[in-house]
Design a protein that fits this description.
The chain has 212 residues and is an alpha/beta fold. It has helices spanning 21-30, 71-75, 93-97, 99-109, 133-143, 158-178, 182-187, 195-207; strands at 7-15, 43-52, 55-64, 83-89, 115-121, 146-149. The radius of gyration is 17 Å and the shape is globular. The structure holds guanosine-5'-triphosphate. Guanosine-5'-triphosphate (GTP) is lined by residues 17-23, 34-40, 65-67, 121-122, 124-125, 151-153. Pfam families: Ras.
């Protein structure tokens, strides 16, 4: 059967516990919002297909637990990520301060080519804001990253931020894609996951436990 997509990328959501990583993912993939905080245990993932620059991109998005005790497990997922969302909560100054630590973990464990975007989530909570938009934008600039304030509750900037990271990953891998001969492209069309990894993904899909 012909593939329903041209390329497959892995994205990762990182940030402190409670910043809204699971909610961002559930809003993007299922257009749902979970009002209660159910801490992720280890990792979960969901899939979605997007069309970016005329390319059908299947993205596998990994939602990691923000809690310290799961860090040994979650760090094992950095290695295979092509794009990473670094998420803080605009109502939590500490979650913003910890971005420095998340970036240093990414530098240590993720591939050097990984694309990163900074996200300030919960923009609907203006009355509880502790981190100014300018602070987020300055920090992102200092790391050379794009920056979005988002709201999983109101849907603000959700599609835009996921599309942008996918676009950046696509651009970063474009040369590699362009060198795949058309005959191979028809059947393969996945940058890294070939048959073995496809099988792995199918198994992962069967065990996916995302709570939304
Ligand atoms: N107001 C508001 N609340 C949000 C938003 N996104 C998430 N929340 C709330 O924040 C809490 C934590 O959200 P989660 O998505 O579970 O947080 P997480 O980052 O996945 O947490 P861990 O799994 O523990 O790492 C929940 O009560 C959500 O309803 C948002 O955009 N606006």
């Amino acid at each position: 059967m012909a593939k329903q997509y041209d390329v497959l990328f892995r994205l990762l959501l990182l940030g402190d516990s409670g910043v809204g990583k699971t909610c961002l993912l559930c809003r993007f993939t299922d257009n749902e919002f979970l009002p209660q905080h159910v801490s992720t245990i280890g990792v979960d993932f969901k899939m979605k297909t997007l069309e970016v620059d005329g390319v059908k991109v299947r993205i596998q998005i990994w939602d990691t637990a923000g809690q310290e005790r799961y860090q040994t497990i979650t760090k094992q997922y950095y290695r295979r990520a092509q794009g990473i969302f670094l998420v803080y909560d605009i109502t939590s100054a500490s979650s913003f301060q910890h971005i420095v630590k998340w970036v240093s973990d990414v530098d240590e464990y993720a591939p050097p080519t990984v694309q990163k975007i900074l996200i300030g989530n919960k923009s609907d909570e203006e009355h509880r804001r502790q981190v100014a938009t300018e602070q987020g934008s300055q920090l992102a600039k200092s790391y050379g990253m794009d920056f979005f304030e988002t709201s999983a509750r109101s849907t603000y900037n959700i599609k835009q931020s996921f599309t942008r990271l996918t676009e950046l990953v696509l651009q970063a891998n474009r040369m590699e894609l362009d060198t795949i001969p058309p005959s191979v492209e028809d059947n393969l069309a996945v940058l890294h996951p070939e048959e073995e990894e496809e099988q792995e993904i199918k198994e992962e899909e069967e065990y996916s436990t995302c709570s939304c």
